[in-house]
Amino acid sequence: MSDISAMKQQSFPIPSLEEWKQEVEKSLKGKPFEKLYSTTYENITIKPIYTRQDIESLAHVEQYPGFPGYVRGTKPNGYIREPWKVSQEISASSPTEWNEIVKHDLERGQTEIHIVLERLGFPVTSVDDIEAMFSGISLDKYSLRIDAGVQSLSFLALLAAYLQKQQIPFDSVRGTIGMDPVGALAEKGQLSTPLAALYDVMADVTKWAKENMQGVKTVIVRGEPYHNGGANTVQELAFAFATAVEYIRACLDRGLVIDAIAPQIHFSFAIGSNFFMEIAKLRAARLVWSNIVQAFGGSESSQKIAMHARTSYFTKTVYDPYVNMLRATVEAFAATIGGADSLHVSPFDEAIGRADEFSRRIARNTQLILLEEAHIANVIDPAGGSYYVETLTAQVAEEAWKLFQQIEEKGGIVKALQDGFVQAEVENVAEQRKNNVKKRKEKIVGTNFYANLAEAPVQKASENNENDEKQLSSSALNEENVAQLQAGFGEKRWIETAIFMAVRRATAQEIEAALKADEASVSVKPIKQWRLAEPFEQLRKASEAHLEKHGARPTVHLINIGSIPNYKARADFITGFFEAGGMAVVKSEGIHTAEKAVSEAINANGTHYIICGSDESYTDIVPAIAKALKQANSNVKLYVAGKQAPDVEQSFVQAGVDGFIHIGSNCYETIVSFMKEMGVDLNE
Asked: Which residues belong to any copy of the Methylmalonyl-CoA mutase alpha/beta chain catalytic domain (predicted)?
């Protein structure tokens, strides 16, 4: 005991930052400490260590959760009294199937009913559809999150008609039934209804909800169209806030006040793979939004942001899809640490097809484990006070504010989209991402690194065209209904007229038809939606098609020089390099003579060979192999694994070597070149 007591009294000197730097530079063998710095896609420099000095000038660090700025959260008690909503998006092939799925998932931990109408899987055309969807579901027990896309009028009218029929009070509904026309414009490139008309609807719906559905938000601002186009964190925030300001101004012009419109806006952000950056993004979002609403004269309460988060579609893969469970878990962890109010976790098969019961359960349970087993909700702002996170939060907020101001100077988000500024900004970062993925500087496990060519693909049941038939059967319009709707809309009574007509069996299509105007709507270049893994997935699909057609994958052959320790590292590198494109790699045993190497190569009857060994072993044997192999067959391609000194490379090329493959090589472009030479159809 006395020894333990003595140990407790011991203290150790606290090293200074300079002392630490000196030790680091020793381990770097004379290289400067700054060698450890890195730069993000946001052009933010990340240091290897942060100290109290980094946050001394940051005013928000001294704030408490629940107080303006709101960096540390909009509620003083965080998740302790009210955890985030488990808000898994649900789709199906029909209203009755959707109803069954929702009931099943609500019984197993889901706490919010989440629909994205564009991805629902069937059209919601009538009150009958709404009745079938919500039959047996108590809307007073669960909040709704309805992403209605371009406009929410038709869905809200049908829902209101259903509530009237069921004698359910409007004010018992809570959640979000929101529209985001600018987000749809950025994603699709055009709108069938003029923005001015959509803003009229937005303002009218917002006024009506304030009087009749006080618990429902009516505007959604999505960051996903930018994130899924390849945008960085700063761009996603800036473009989202510019969109929100566009909606604020439109509603102010139509008679609302800032304290009526700001609380009606619900943001939705994608959560990517850069863990700390995504935490900082959500924390920075609260600060920037508070400043924006304050600038409009909004109250402290109106400055509180409402944020939904969804784990990134952009980061998910078709191949090795079960790894997506791990990706989604890390992203969900970041979202909850960052303080999202609700969360959708991507099912692991999201990039392949519609989720089934198993993938929905795993996604839902990811959230429940974070809540019930990891106890994330038990700590208020767990990232608060971290020197790194607080500094990063301030940097993201500052850069997002600068870009937001640039957009404002250009006339707002719509003008910036029309001028192509937003698209150019996103494309610039997207190209950086693509190049880094192609060069394998950005690693995607199971795709461009550690590909498993033996994996069995996830099988999805084929979807029938029942929905298409229903859509066609519902397309006939009652011209009298459309005329009555247009008359009411002409009197600037959008939601009132739409509900009145929905009760009288008007359809969603008729409401939408009445909204359309003869005048041309805005049109812009759409932001292409893609996933980071797509370049290599295309190569894998081409290889598989080649296998099916010709009975073998496109193949490279390795000529391994010397003993196993001599060639293994480079042979393993080359194997992983080409398997990323779905190519087969045939390895030789260690070869000690050029004659043996050439003999085995000729017998293998391949087209592309790569010599693997140490630099020392290459000196004499590589030129000898190259000369003899090219004499035997001048059409074969011969490469050397590893970067060589310029003079060595020159001598090898003169001997017949066609190129060199090393860590700096563009993996994607190299594989494309090989496949083209092998006759692989890359467009199949």
From this structure: 40-117, 120-517
